[in-house]
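Exam prep: given the inputs below (a chain plus iron/sulfur cluster), describe the expected output before reading on.
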Amino acid sequence: MSAPPTGVTKVKGIIHMNYADIKSYDVANGTGVRVSLFVSGCTHHCKNCFNQETWDFSYGKPFTEKEIDFIIEACKPSYISGLSLLGGEPMEYVNQMGLLPLVRRFKEAYPDKTIWCYTGYDFTEYILPKMCKEWEFTPELLSCFDIMVDGKFIEEEKDLNLKFRGSRNQRIIDVQKSLATGQLVLWDEKGAFF
Ligand code: SF4
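Solution:
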């Protein structure tokens, strides 16, 4: 798995990430009011996915310095709790590559604000044992993420009463505690500071 066969878009010879949308006020995808970035490209193809147009890696627009500047500025107000990364699939190879400069700048500018990342990949079965070892971007990305909501959307597990996730199989993971302990630590909303 040194380089994936999918998820790479080339425009004029440049490999880059596309994005579908940026929301400056999102209260559905993480705690508080957040800025949300919906990236393009997803290989999971979950049944009844809410965002099927974003499966295509070339959907939307190229994600450039201009978009990074916009997001950093949009996150500035004190009422913004943080940044949420959704898709599409933020953890596809090309999207990890595209997200890293944003995540670095965000954490530098706002060390007390949080990053939530939604992924269809399994945190314990795939992200930690495979991506983290074989893809160069993954360890640094994880070091910046506060929360990951992992797992594919499964229609049969869908529950409209769930907070911040669509189906019961998906988990809300405290990334930093999980990395520190070497064990899966689920997010404890009551004890959380964000
Ligand atoms: S992982 Fe998310 S974007 Fe990808 S198919 Fe599943 S629900 Fe849709």
